[in-house]
Amino acid sequence: MITARAAATFEPVGRSVATARAFVRDTLQGWGFADVVDDAVVLTSELVTNAVVHAGTAAEVCCLRYPSAVRVEVADRYPEREVPLQDVAHPTGSTDREGGRGLILCAALAGRWGVEYTATHKQVWFQLELPERPAGTRSAGPALPLAALPLADARVRVAVVQVDSDGAITGWNDDARALFGHPADQVVGKPLGDLTAWPQTPGTGFGLAEALRLSRWEGSYGIRGADGKILSVYGSHLRVRDSSGEPSTVCLLVPEEERAVLQSPSRTPAQDPSPADRGKSADPFEVFIGSPAPDDLDGLLQRTVERARDMLDGDAAYLLLATDDETELEVRASTGLPSARQRFARVPVEAGTGRYGSARMPAVHEDLTVAPGAVPLLAGTGMRSVVTVPLKVEGRLTGSLGVAAETPGRYSNEEALRLQFAADRIALAVESARLTELERLRRGSLSFLVEASDLLAGTLERDQTLALMAQMTVPTLASWCAVYTIAEQSEPELAFVLHEDEDRIDGLKALLARISPPPSDPTPGARPWTAPGEAAQSLALRATLRSVSLTDAARPAGPGIAQATAQAVGGETVVLPLVARNRVIGMLTLGKPADERFRQEILELAEDLSRRAALALDNARLYSERTAISQSLQRSLLPPELPTVPGVEVEVIYQAAGEGNEVGGDFYDLFPIREGCWGFAIGDVCGTGPEAAAVTGLARHALRLLAREGFGGPAVLERLNAAILDEGSRSRFLTLLYGELWPQEDGGALLKVVCAGHPLPLRLRQDGTVEPAAEPQPLLGVIDDLELVEQSVTLDPGDVLLCVTDGVTERREGGRMLGDDGLAEVLAQSTGLTAGAVAARVQRAVERFAAEPPSDDMAILAMRVPEEPVPAAEQRPL
């Protein structure tokens, strides 16, 4: 028979969970059922969370009072969402899951429970039996079997210790002497702290002296015995005053394993509880820690804040972890706070002066409106009162745990002590999980940096380096990235933009083009940059106002580009300087979408990456500059263009060995000397690279100058030989074929050539005959007194003169070499071809002779007298 009924409806918002807990707590306490309040509140919290968070509907909570039981019903309006009853029937391994957790708790804590469906509602209910109360007692626990009773010594001893307001011992009974071995006359008058092994390091946390000033509290700590060993005790402490008003504290102490003697909750823990009874453990901190695996940091932290909120009946809770240098705290888990306040927001450890200005000490703020800014994380959230305690391991600050409420004056020192004890119990587990995660992150970071270094080292091209920088950061480190470059004596320039959503790249690029670049500060590390987010929000606001002013027919459907861009860049944005060789060469900008922040480890990894990327970008810049200079100088060593020779076809093919080289040790030239006479040359300097190219430039310019001064072929080469020898250690051997070309009116051509150590020129006649067109003579750059002679060759119409460097004749594959005979064979098959076709055929023969690409410079000069003279206007300039 129902003797009383109370019901309320709660909206589908996160704060409704705390309101529903308060409703159930007040209702049951008003009915006088304090024994089942805790279980009812825990179960209501889980079921309402399922309704308003997971089902997303309003929750209807109804409390029913029976003569011997209390029934609580929680209904939602989402009957299609099935309850995972299989997880309740087989709970092993499922306690870490969010779905079905409330039903597992129902099975563990409630005497009866069930699920009912209607066409519009789904209702989960549980029933808690009221404990029997024998006459003459205020409360009593249920009868337990002998095996379930807690163990104790043959005689239970309760040490009674009285401490004055200064913390000195004034009373010490016989049981205290029996338990700890200290006679009363040896301890009376001494500070209790001399015997106490307190969980927190004295002077750095919530100390014993502060705890003794509380009106009442219970908890575990250690007492050092006469033998020097520490005995773990459980104590119940009550602060009293005598007739004169002098305060003191009475401490009742028992061994930790006998804590049930003093513990306030009526339920006493069984020695080996069954699975159904484990949720009823009298140790609130075992329930507080929850079930995530020790290395599941995120699960452990989220479960911790939820249990902290439930334990102190708060509206919100948060947990922050300290950075390695203990100067900042980073939000890692929260409940009941806006999303913008959640993960990876950072606050300083030392927020201000005074006792509550440091996260290293417990703090209770009864009303945040009296001290605005005291807890920056809660600004603008509607929270009025908050209690925070530090997490410490071996005296080192590792984090901070806070619980907040919307009403003022909710928390006092007693709640701070309860929360501090809970924080002490979980601090080591949290730190262990944090270190495990940090080690995993660092190993991944090292692999990431090694791979990034390899990729950056694999290119010396500027644009490709910029693209690699962005692609390595998105989406691994950030959701979007922008790279600014700074040339000497110039302003920053937006060089590359990348977003994880390709459709948003153009919008992001347009947004960044509208705002000024970030300042080029060389200070290492990431610094915040708010301009992109502010600009995006401004654009979105203007777009919204324009949309409101439009008619329904003209208003665009769905979110516009401005709103999408604001959502994409509305989170935290940081700038890292790109510093190379003590100069800022650019900035790497990383951004997150709305309401997201960077975690400290990611920023440290980005800083390492920025240093490597800056050096790679600067190397690419230097390489590009030097390549441009080199190519400009090399191009100056080649003829700008070949002149047109009346009555003669001329074709040149030139290929320098080595990557990035346009000029090597081989060279060619064709230039007018005087009216009706042209000079031509093809040579090969010993070696390759810049040194050979320097002699190339000397030879080409000297040939032109000397020939135009009227010197004949032998005189030109003899003076060039002297110039090469004058270079001293920079001189190189030089083979050179130099000649003068005199086109004849009858259609032929007269050539006067000097072949100084160079491969002999070959003459191809119309009948396919191939023969050398000169005799070999000594090469240049070896001896001082050089005597050379000039030889004359006449080309008839249809004849071809082929001049090559040894890169053609010495083309090798294994032990085979193309040689002079192979070249003559290729030329013999070129009868009737134009000069360009002859040169191309020789080049193909060289390339096909071996599988490997040519490793030596190569120059091919082909001159052909057509069968019929070609008018000058039809000659093709080369």
TrEMBL record:
Segments of this protein annotated with the region Disordered: 260-285
Q: Which InterPro entries match?
A: Bact_Sigma-Reg, GAF, GAF-like_dom_sf, HATPase_C_sf, HATPase_dom, PAS, PAS-like_dom_sf, PAS_fold
Q: Which SUPFAM superfamilies match?
A: ATPase domain of HSP90 chaperone/DNA topoisomerase II/histidine kinase, GAF domain-like, PP2C-like, PYP-like sensor domain (PAS domain)
Residue ranges of the PAS domain?
160-190
> What SMART domains does the database record attribute to this sequence?
GAF, PAS, PP2C_SIG
Mind listing the UniProt keywords for this protein, alphabetically?
Hydrolase
Q: Which GO terms describe its molecular function?
A: phosphatase activity
Biological process annotations from GO: regulation of DNA-templated transcription
Q: Does the keyword Hydrolase apply?
A: yes
Question: PANTHER family recorded for this chain?
Answer: STAGE II SPORULATION PROTEIN E, STAGE II SPORULATION PROTEIN E-RELATED
What is the protein's given name?
Regulatory protein
Record organism? Streptantibioticus cattleyicolor (strain ATCC 35852 / DSM 46488 / JCM 4925 / NBRC 14057 / NRRL 8057) (Streptomyces cattleya)
